[in-house]
């Protein structure tokens, strides 16, 4: 909307926008908007804003992202994923402020916060600190441990829910009024209410969910099975998406908010390309996407990192976890490399992030990449649940070239076979066997992961992470009694 | 301890393939390398029997290996192709003159005839003189745009059916990243296709699309091919360098990243409803262009009229500037002939005619803005 026009994002002009030196704020600079107050921030390296005008601009950006989509309806229940990081903290504060507005401007949905405890990754965030923050903001909070993602699909994962004190007090007041009129045994009811589960705030501690064997298994996968940092991070990202969506389903939410800023999305766009997940860009950057049957929204997608920082600063907001919590170690990965690259380029060419973000928003999955049997179960990656991009496509593709290279490097007998073949199509059949099974189950990006993990080993926990598919045999079993031509008994 | 070749041929391995990580002996590597390119050519049906094919040759490693491989596969698999080397002389002293010597040696070594075209004969400018004007920044824009067209011109001259270029997997991955950074979605979609597809033009194809740069270097090294290795003396200032450095970092972290990027590029499409510039032909030189006037003509116009920065930056601003400069100088824009153009009433009438054409294009909501523009232009042109 209006905010987008503020950027000059013409591709070619990128080069011309090279900053020779950064502008520096002086005492006398006025806000370009109101022309009255002293400027406190510089946006886009040229526009001066005072705190007030900046806040109006920033909050408007957030609200218009939600508003113009018309996806969030009156009274919707929304699960807001909170990592403790800077942009999801900002998201919670923006929602709180939106809810506190007078009736005409009030945000019309009911948020519920979800926190995933990642103590397994040596994350330093304490649950108590998170709780304290959420409590101040007066949101109901649910939390779970990352390793719960390994729980079998058929079973429930353990999620604890705490309602904040303020929330309870308000709830009680409401009940008081209501019951006063209804019941004469008011005090008795109140007693019941007090002892009820609702009233009890759980013993908040990092161990409240218990250290399970699952945490050991997840540790094992992350440190032993996955050999490099890139795979680890990619794997973890998929796990987080999986777990958030699963929690949402279990808690009865159809809609989820993630607090990714546009800068973060630009990094994701480029690193998705580098990970071979180009076809999935749309599934991670559009405002509304669908993962595992849950609608995921990105209300912060039009804001940028520096703006979020200004907002946090100007409002004196406490951020529980300042550090990026993506990496259990400091080895370089594709994502961390991309992050550094984007940040460096942004320093020099300030339209980098908006350009990458806008490019990414225009991209979707290519038609050729889709599988022929569209709509069938086999069309979806068993791990990330997104459409597979490992269909046949044309016979000349990157995927086929990898398969060929592997064959040629591994088997000597191929030499004689290929040399003697005149008909080329037979050669193609030679290329396409065995090895490629992994590409029939997974998307390209996940196939890279799964080749590192021993996904076929049924004793491995990874099995629980895969979307179970009914095999053809199972399907046959169901209808077996009705198949006459198979010569079965007809009672 | 020596490693054994992973194909079980019994010999000791001499290298680790960057693409798959497998260890191979020299013979098995040669064979795998050649076979892969053969499969790429076959599966994408790049050539048909009897085609006259120009090999774009710079003298660098990629094009030298390309020339060698094309000749080898043509003989081995009986493609039935007639080959010719096509070189472009940009006029960069200390770089291109030396590399052209290499190409001339290749001509003799591989027995493929050579044709050299220079920027000087085509455009009346050498890169050395362009750099004098524009400076070290942005000069790659000129060189790239001109070379692209020069290759096409050369191919037309030779009347070939196809041009093959030595773009390798690294180059293509780099271009994918570049186009994302520049927001050029039209090119992002085109850049991963193995051959260009406009019907009436000579198509260009890239047999090394899936071949790692490292493997090309290894192949040239083990085959002891004669190639030229100096970096272009003007290139360090290019924006592309950022993308290149990033890609090299990615490759270091995960060697499959290069082919992964290409896969990403192949499996992308543009969302419905996004406006893409339609490919048309330049109204001045008749070359393929997305604008009314192609980039090469705009750049030349700038050079010839002493505003070398003209073609660098927004293409919408170029249009305005072109009109202005035309009125000021009245020089013929397409060549350096500096023939005075009729600067009288007829040319102005032509301008207005153009504007009227714009008006016909107006549709719906945009009309308001365009009408303002038209009135403004008409005021500018008022007799």
From TrEMBL, chain A:
The keyword tRNA processing applies. GO terms for biological process: protein urmylation; tRNA wobble position uridine thiolation. GO terms for cellular component: cytosol. Pathway: tRNA modification; 5-methoxycarbonylmethyl-2-thiouridine-tRNA biosynthesis. Transmembrane segments: none annotated. Pfam families: CTU2. This is Cytoplasmic tRNA 2-thiolation protein 2. One of its GO terms (molecular function) is nucleotidyltransferase activity. Keywords: Cytoplasm, tRNA processing. Belongs to the CTU2/NCS2 family. It is found in: Cytoplasm. Plays a central role in 2-thiolation of mcm(5)S(2)U at tRNA wobble positions of tRNA(Lys), tRNA(Glu) and tRNA(Gln). May act by forming a heterodimer with NCS6/CTU1 that ligates sulfur from thiocarboxylated URM1 onto the uridine of tRNAs at wobble position.
UniProtKB/TrEMBL annotation, chain B:
One of its GO terms (molecular function) is nucleotidyltransferase activity. Keywords: Cytoplasm, RNA-binding, Transferase, tRNA processing, tRNA-binding. Pathway: tRNA modification; 5-methoxycarbonylmethyl-2-thiouridine-tRNA biosynthesis. Its EC number is 2.7.7.-. It comes from the Eukaryota. It is found in: Cytoplasm. Residues 53-231 form the tRNA(Ile)-lysidine/2-thiocytidine synthase N-terminal domain. Residues 281-310 form the Cytoplasmic tRNA 2-thiolation protein 1 C-terminal domain. Belongs to the TtcA family. CTU1/NCS6/ATPBD3 subfamily. This is Cytoplasmic tRNA 2-thiolation protein 1. The gene is ctu1_1.
